[in-house]
Design brief:
By secondary structure, the protein is α+β, with helices and mostly antiparallel strands. It has eight helices and 14 strands. Bound molecules: (3R)-3-hydroxy-3-methyl-5-(phosphonooxy)pentanoic acid.
């Protein structure tokens, strides 16, 4: 059967509370389980135009934000190679990918998570037509996304998603992410305001970052800590316990950066204003008692999480800050990818 079509998805980024940092031997196997909140606003928009035809040489052309992107093409070829066991039709597929993000590059928002999950969703939709199925398998979507970028495994669904095998969640796996469903209503509508402290793109790739955990003197301690934090976090999410959520969130963010600081080469991704902001936010929390917790990804920018009822107070705190910044990006809890187009014809 020959097939031709066009499929588009938008897929969100996510923010990890318990962080994935470091791998085990194998293909993208995490050193510890991680848990994130799927975002709603910060998204990649990806379209694949495709032709599947017996005898066709496989090819892929990638356009990123309106320009041909050979670097992404190379990465994509490697990824397609990894996942062709799941989608054998890739061996005779011509793909043209067009992708863009609705958030700035430099925002310190995981664009690999949104980008790779959007691609995984598009390929899953094509596979449905090949196999004449109604819907795709979320575990396969997550697994293929993971093989492109670990954190992307958690962006194929929402709002709370765990990746990595742990006795704490039945069905959890190193190969795909699993939704956490036992969540108190308190945590179903959080805000995430991203404080842009630094506009420059981060100076290290996450691949290089993860490799710093190989032979890291704190590796075993980190695995233990992440598992303990996961236990606390799952219980806090279930019970609606903000105080514990806040403690785990900030401990994970600071530990991630402490691991970087203590690794070979002493990697430091904070800027002076990252530290200034953290002091300011903690001071304000002490003073007002407002419920807010900060976290950081592998970059200098701050994600500030808070429940909707704290919005007004947090807004005042942000507006009155003496610490400079390059703007705020406002996001909230989201539920995952959305299909935009899916048309095809057999010939
Ligand atoms: O998925 P990667 O390889 O880009 O790694 C993501 C690492 C962190 O963003 C720092 C943490 C996480 O779990 O998302």
């Amino acid at each position: 059967m020959n097939l031709k079509g066009k499929v588009s998805y938008s897929s969100p980024s996510n923010i990890a509370i318990v962080k994935y940092w470091g791998k085990e031997p194998g293909d993208q196997i995490p050193m510890n389980p991680s848990l994130s909140m799927t975002l709603n606003q910060c998204r990649s928009f990806t379209t694949i135009e495709y032709e599947l035809k017996e005898g066709l040489q496989p090819s892929v052309e990638v356009w990123f934000e309106g320009a041909r992107a050979p670097e992404i093409e190379t990465k994509m070829e490697i990824w397609l190679e990894k996942i062709n066991a799941f989608y054998p039709w890739l061996a005779h597929a011509a793909l043209r990918v067009d992708t863009r993000n609705n958030f700035p590059h430099s925002a310190g928002i995981a664009s690999s998570a949104s980008g790779m999950s959007a691609l995984a969703m598009c390929l899953s939709a094509i596979d449905n037509h090949v196999r004449q199925k109604e819907s795709g398998d979320v575990f396969l979507q997550s697994n293929t996304a993971r093989l492109g970028s670990g954190s992307a495994s958690r962006s194929v669904t929402g709002p709370w998603v765990l990746w990595g095998e742990t006795p704490l969640l039945r069905g959890s796996s190193h190969e795909y992410a699993e939704k956490v469903t036992d969540v108190h209503p308190y945590f179903t509508q959080l805000h995430d305001t991203i404080i842009i402290v630094d506009k420059e793109p981060k100076s290290i790739s996450s691949r290089a970052g993860h490799s710093l955990m190989d032979g890291h003197p704190w590796r075993e301690g980190r695995i233990h800590q992440a598992n303990e934090n996961m236990t606390l976090l799952l219980k806090a999410l279930k019970d609606g316990d903000w105080k514990t959520f806040e403690k785990v969130t900030e401990n994970e963010a600071l530990s991630l950066h402490a691991l970087m600081l203590a690794s070979r080469g002493g990697m430091m991704l904070w800027k002076g204003n990252t530290v200034e902001w953290i002091h300011y936010l903690r001071q304000q929390r002490e003073k007002t008692g407002v419920e807010m917790a900060f976290t950081l990804d592998a970059g200098a920018n701050i994600h500030l999480l808070y429940p909707p009822q704290a919005s007004e107070q947090v807004e005042t705190i942000l507006q009155q800050s003496p610490v400079s910044h390059h703007g705020f990006i406002r996001d909230v809890t989201g539920t995952g990818p959305e299909k935009i187009t899916d048309t095809y014809e057999q010939y």
